[in-house]
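Agenda item 2: S-adenosylmethionine complex prediction
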Amino acid sequence: MEPELVALRDGAQLDIWQDFRLSTMPEIISAMNLCHAVFALVDTGVLANLRAGRRLPENGLLDGVVDGMGEGFLTYLRMRGVVEVRDGGYSLTRKGELLTGDVALARLGIYLEAYGPVMSRMSDLLTGRATYGADVERRGGPLARHCATLFSVFHTPVLVRAMRGRGVRTVLDVGCGGGGLLVDACLADEELTGVGLDISADAVEEARRLAGRAGVADRVEFVVGDAFAPHTWPAAARAADGMCVVSALHELFRDGEQAVVDVLDAYRATLPDARIVLVGEPEIRYDAKDNDDDFFLIHLLTGQGMPRERAEWLRVFDKSELECRRIYHRPEAGPRVCFYDLAPRN
Ligand SMILES: C[S@@+](CC[C@H](N)C(=O)[O-])C[C@H]1O[C@@H](n2cnc3c(N)ncnc32)[C@H](O)[C@@H]1O
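Presented output:
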């Protein structure tokens, strides 16, 4: 016999559930899990398998995934509209293509892979149960790799333009991360050479690998070093005739504004032949556009100095021996980064 079906309707329960839906929490939870799933799609190698034409489990689509879980993972991805079954195999949907584009994956990688260990300890950091730098750290290698992707798309052209206009032949990139900027700049200008310096040994490793893959290892050198202690830099770094420091200088605001002024003066003294010091800095505008709020949060939790707005940077430069001659910005596209073209005062 068919069991009796009893529909329970309770106004109070209905209100509570509708409130939950209206809160948008269901979408927020889904977005959070989808972030992890897209990351796993890459990290497990399933995306690479798919792109290599292995579109079915029997052709190797799920190689590297635990038996019995892979099919379920694909079911989830179908439910979320990331993959679909088409022409006898799995394919990315248009949404799946966009979610796995280079820029989308780099942005995801920064927040999930590089800063994930920080975000997951948010309450510990806020209450002092954990301290950034001692108990928790961002991952330098992934940060470098993902920044390199973003910067080569959006910022290399600025560097090349600014340096070429000043006749620079050897660029020192301080806080070079994964080396994307220097490697791309060398690819764009075959006479350019460069030295990259970063405090993270993992980042320097990434940079060396990138230079090797790009075939410019004979023109760029990457070293571990402290951006804020120029007196410790190797001779090759000090011989550069142009310098850039991108998305790194604001970290020194943690020691106060004067520390930033002092290091700018130290750059001037350490590289007397430098025709330009190009400072690239993200601007936080305290809104929620393009993850500005998320960007603010990672800086807050890691105790890094907070990035500043343009007018505040200009005030800092005014106190130094370097003069800001030009500002490059890209109002419509890309991370909100301004490039300040500094040169010794006349
Ligand atoms: C947001 S990333 C930007 C990376 C790079 N400039 C690019 O174009 O992709 C900031 C970099 O600054 C580096 N950094 C932070 N503090 C540093 C210091 N004291 N000395 C050298 N590098 C530092 C970090 O390791 C990281 O690679």
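Discussion summary: The chain has a mean pLDDT of 94.
Owner for follow-up: CH.
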